[in-house]
Each structure stands twice: as C-alpha cells, then as structure tokens.
Amino acid sequence: MHFSRLPTELLHAIFRLLPRSSLTHLCLTNRFLHEACLPVLYCHLELSFRSHIRQLMTGLQRPLLRDTIQQHTKHLTLVCRQSGSQWLVVDLQHLFRMIQHVHTLTFSDFQVLPIDNIRSLANILPTVDHLQFRYCNLESTKTPKPHHDPSSHMPLPVFQNATKLSLSWTDFGEPAMTDLLCCLPHLETVCFGANHNRTPEANDAALRILPLHCPKVRHLEVSLQQVSETTLCNTIAFYGNQLERLSVRCDGPRTLHAVATYATRVHDLVVRGNGAITLTDSRPLIRRPNGTTRNEQQRRLEVSMMETNEQEEPEEHGLLSILRQCEALRRLEIVCWMIQDVPGVIWNAIESVAQRRIATATRKRDGLHAQSLVSEARSSLAAASASASASGSTLPEHENWREGHPVFEIHPPSDRTGGVWLYYFDDNATRNQQGLRRREIGHLEKTLALDGEELSEIRKHIQTTV
Length: 466
Hints:
The chain is of the alpha/beta class. The chain has 18 helices and 16 strands. Among the domains are: 1-41, Monooxygenase; 45-141 and 158-227, Alpha-Beta Horseshoe (Leucine-rich repeat, LRR (right-handed beta-alpha superhelix)); 343-386 and 400-465, no CATH class. Helix 3 packs parallel to helix 5 (63-72) and helix 9 runs parallel beside helix 10. The longest helix has 22 residues, at 344-365. The protein is flat.
C-alpha cells in the first residue's frame, strides 16, 4: 500500500518511531512526505544559537511552516550555547507569540538564568503545562522597591496552567526558588532531582517553602541532597492524604512512619535507602556501678527492663506500617536497600507469589505432557552425547539443562538487580531442596518492585502474624 493511502494519524505514529535523522531524509523525498513529516519534525522545537533563530524566523515566512509550528509544536527546548540569556526575551519575543500551543517548556545549560526572564514568558506562553530545568543555575534578580513606587504593588505574572515542575542537576538559592514557586501556584507534580548542591541549605529550604506556595501538590519526588528528615516529614504531613505518588529518600524510621501516618492514600510509593533504615534498640546500656554485687546488678537490670517495657512498646517496622495503613497502595518500590533491612515478611510473601506463578506457568507450559516432554528431551540429549562421543568431540552443556534436570530461570518483577531465582521441577530436586529456593547473585543491596499481587500477599502474611 502506498503512503498516500494511509490515514494521517497512522503515518504520524509510524514517523514517531523513526530516528530524527531518518525522518529528515524522508522529509526530502517528495512533496507528499515533506508535508506529512513536518508535524512530527516540528512537534519538538529545540533552539540553541541565534543563527538558528534567524533561520527559523526566515522560514516562518512560508505559510506551510508557519501553520505547522502554530498547530503542532507542543514542546519547546531552549539550550544556551552562548553567553548570557537575554536573547530569550529579545530575540524570541516574536516567535513566542506565534506558538501558542506549547505545553512543555525546557531550559537547558544556562549558567545564569534569572527568574525574571522565566516569569516574563507567563503571559506570552499561557498554555505551558510543564516547566523543565536541566543543568541550569537559577538566580533571583528581584531588587527591593520603595513603598511609594506604584509598580511595587502590581501583581506579578504567573503560569496559570502550569501543573508540573521538573528540576535535574539545577542549582538555586532560596530567593530564586521562592520567586520560581511564586509564579507556579497551581503545581500538582513536583520533581526535585539531584543537583550540585552549591548553595548551603538551599535544598532543604526549597522543600520547606514548597507547601507555602504550592498547596495542591499530589505527585512529589525528592532526590535533593542534604534535606533534613524533619523537613521531609513536615512536607509529607502537610500534603497528607492528597499525595498519590511519592518518591523520597529514607534517612531513618521517621520518614517511613510519616508516610504511614499521613499519606494513607498514596498509590505509588518509591523509597530509596541509604543503609540507615533498620530500627534499632535505642535503650541505654545498664552498667554495674562500682561496689555493687552481681545479684544487685541483676535485680536493677530486671526492674529497669520492666519499667522500659511498660513505658515503651516495641515499634513496628516502618514498611509494615505503610503496608498496613496505606490500603490504596498499588505499587511499592524499594530502591537500594540492604537485604537485612527488608522485613522477613516481605521476603516470605515474594517467595509465595513466585512459587504460585511458577506453578501456574508450569501447568500452562507443560500440561499433561510434561513427563513425555522431559523423556523426549533426555533421549535427545543421550543420543547427542552418544554421537558426540563416537566422533570424539564434546557436547557443550545447554544453559537450560543441569545434571539432566530441566531448570527454568525466571526473573520475577520483584527483583531488578540481576538476582536469579532457580526452580527445579523434577521430583529428586524438589525432595533435595524441599521446594522453593532463592539464590542471591550480585550486590548486598537490592531493588524490589512490588505490584498488586505481592502487596496483597504481604498484607495476608502481616495479618497472620498479628
């Protein structure tokens, strides 16, 4: 079928799968493909140099390119390859007024990016929904004005439709972050990615002032360094039940219990560990004073332990509290946790789900002919070994055959770091291993992604242990 007979939507779907270089060559093939490729080519517009801007402004004199950009450009990326950033406001003013359907605005590689330049685009690009900053350095250029100045009481422009903010390797100070959040009052998704942390305490201040200016946040991801656990817990407590997606770094048990207490309606939770998550006994050691006998020391120890048990109840692991309290949780990802920090209940539930999945897969794969298939495979293996011995060559061991037993290596979705789970289905291996066995391969840190089935099984195990 010729390209001209395909629907336009199908053509655009095919073109989006092609590399940009191939799409450029395809655009130069003929007039039909040129007109068909333009909407896909210009859906994301990236500008880096003033010469590019001048070339684009010249091309916009053609009606076809002008109409394509006005209707199909949804993503605009501004990359600073030259010193300064004033060309954002000067050279692109006319272009910004022509693209009124931009939803995503990205700033990249700006060594100095004044917040005033960003705020000036709020009225020019009213349809922006997502603001992205990559490898930038945000600065505040606000200067105090006298009280008698009428312009000091004028409302500042804000992005009325912006609901998403993403920062990746972007540094800022507290005044710059305050000015940025002030012009984004309707944020619902905030992603604070890691940065170079060049300004002391700026990262902690960014998370602390976020609730003051953006009270509607529902999706929050925090990867900033040197954010205190108190600030993180206070932020979680402020947003509370309106949080649906949460991704944070866990510096201690307080973070886990804050999620379990306040964010009870979270659907998707990602908890990144740092090796200090295990709940330890914080009770002081009781030493025998000089001059006391061993019996007196033992009696004091027993009395102290009884008083401690009456005053302090054993605290439940934070992950178990989250699984118990957050009933709407559909996905839990535990990133880079030490194996010993994960409660045993979770491991038992994972093994139960994996065993059930393996049993189901075995019935579907083999069915009633499992034994016959194994016999035929062993016969084929014996014949191949005999022929190899007769010819004087050796037969390499197949990766799915070990000691004559069929082995299925399956990577369940709960293990993403290369851990191999081996399940043996013949009677002898089952009798030797007493069922399911898990062998850890790789680092001591694991990343577990638990979906609905694993979470349901974990909750069952928690209820049975209560």
